[in-house]
Amino acid sequence: MAKTRDHIIAEASRWVVEQRSGTMTAGQQAALRAWLDEHPDHRKAFGEIAGIAAGAASLRSLAELEPRPALTHAAPSRHSRAWAHMGGSRRRRIAATAIAASLAGAALLLPALPWGGGIDSSTTVAEMRTLMLADGTRVTLGPESRIRADVGSGGRHAEIIHGEAFFEVAHDSSRPFTVDAGDTRVRVLGTRFDVRRSGGRVSTSVLDGVVQVSEAAPLFHAKPRHVLQAYQRVDTRADVALFDAASQSAVVRVDAPPGEWREGRLTYVDAALADVVTDLNRYYAPGISIDDARLGEARIATTFMRKDFETFFANLPIILPVEIRRSPTGHVTIGRRSGA
């Protein structure tokens, strides 16, 4: 029997809460992927609820919430029965959804607790997470991102596996804080800056303070080093091969506040459309694709709130000779306009 929309929303809400707990096992993650692949409506609902959770602005009282029952993670063929404990009535399903959505919002609003020792944390589409490291450093992890960090007695270090993170580093002149993103290393004593690793490139931008960025050097070349101050950015390579050409990276000025994505605004200036779409797919669950590789090379400038993708889709055909096509699942394809 086909699931109702209420049932799917309830399931999606439970999955978002479970994911935001940061304690999912490999088996639970596999079960989530199976549920997302089971039907296009699952992925769409998950993206909607994750977006609501990420943008939650207020929560009245956690004390009134019922305890969250444990999820039953079944094999894909039996997964729909795993949610039977939520009850058959519409009223009970909606109540469960409300509790789950509230808990998802609470995950953002409660103060981040210090993590002891090393951490390994990740997010999925439209999800953001705030981590408070043991030294007082705060890290905001963007959607579709993964980070490892350790601020023990051996030093202060983080590694961005993929995605984006904004760092508010607690000052400690005796222990520099380093961030590795492939072959790029960022070194600070205490400041606020953003690092994004995507498509073999690393973009580092500084909100305030001073940051040193170094990039691995190919054979016979000097190791590039850059010093960034407030509202400056440098794009470097995440992967440097032995016989690559010398780096062409240079420090540039930025107008938009680095890390403004934390407040909900996405800004791109003189950016390749392909790079913009790659970044937006971390926020937009149904997905966006370009059906013409040459279109991906077009440069654009745009800004909009991450909850308002319709503004981006409406403005793009004004900027470029493109048309927007949507599938029944909500997936958006950007194609060249007929006759252009």
Q: What does this 3D model show about the protein?
A:
- The chain has 340 residues and is α+β, with helices and mostly antiparallel strands.
- Helices cover 24% and strands 31% of the residues.
- The chain contains 6 helices and 19 strands.
- The strands form 3 sheets. Strands 1, 2, 3, 4, 5, 6, 7, 8, 9, 10, 11, 12, 13 and 14 form a 14-stranded mixed sheet that branches. It has a 3-stranded mixed sheet with strand order 16-19-18, with helices on one face.
- A hairpin with a 2-residue loop joins strand 7 and strand 8 (184-188).
- Helix 1 packs parallel to helix 4, helix 2 (26-38) packs across helix 3 and helix 3 (40-54) crosses helix 4.
- The chain is globular, with a radius of gyration of 22 Å.
- 32% of the residues are buried.
The structure class reads alpha+beta
What number is the mean pLDDT?
Answer: 81
Poorly predicted tracts of residues: 55-116
Summed up, the helix count is 6
Distance between the termini: 46 Å
Order of helices and strands: HHHHEEEEEEEEEEEEEEEHEEHEE
Strand-residue proportion: 25-35%
Cα-atom Rg, whole angstroms? 22 Å
Helical amount among residues, as a percent range?
A: 10-25%
Global shape:
globular
What does the main sheet amount to?
14 strands, mixed
The total beta strand count reads 19
